[in-house]
């Protein structure tokens, strides 16, 4: 039989409202009572209904993150850091990977919105029009990462892939290099890769250049 809040209150010899205040972290509970209630919660194995609590408070304590691939070290390290910081603040991370497909990202966003997250972390600035409409209509905070854009949904944190590639080619050219190759992954198109290619090609005048598309196993990106 599922343990209810009334069972905890009965064992702790307090009212159900007191148990609720302990669960919600209210300060209007004495340290002794809080300790007693928490001990009873552990003894009974009580688990609060986070869905119901989220509906009441209009918060679920969940952040949704969508990344293009789980296996790449760059994304894995970002998710690790994000998860660590959120955990310290009592928030959990829900991760989906879209495989560099903006159509799949749209489906994940739709599914995640049904779970009522408190905010979104998105990789890059390329999204389907429907994805943008859904997130804007939700009113949730959004951070787009890994690339800069002049038209973010909400907030953007990243770096300028276009300018970085352009300056790299300019530096190599200034040092006398005339034969350059860019090795990238043409299988997984995204805004970051597109901006790097634009930056590379911008400096192609007076250069002898070669564009080589590699497999994902040997991808080099800048």
Written account of the structure:
It contains nine helices and seven strands. It has 222 residues and is α/β, with parallel strands linked by helices. It has three domains: 44 residues, Orthogonal Bundle (434 Repressor (Amino-terminal Domain)), CATH 1.10.260.40; 99 residues, Response regulator (Rossmann fold, 3-Layer(aba) Sandwich), CATH 3.40.50.2300; 61 residues, no CATH class. The protein has a five-stranded parallel beta sheet with strand order 2-1-3-4-5, sandwiched between helices. A two-stranded parallel ribbon has the order 6-7. Helix 5 links the parallel strand 1 and strand 2. The C terminus is likely disordered.
List the helices and strands and how they pair.
Blueprint: H1 5-12, H2 16-23, H3 31-44, H4 50-57, E1 62-67, H5 73-88, E2 92-97, H6 102-114, E3 119-123, H7 129-138, E4 142-145, E5 155-157, H8 161-174, E6 179-184, H9 191-202, E7 208-213
Parallel strand pairs: 1-2, 1-3, 3-4, 4-5, 6-7
Helix pairs in contact: 1-2, 1-3, 6-7, 8-9
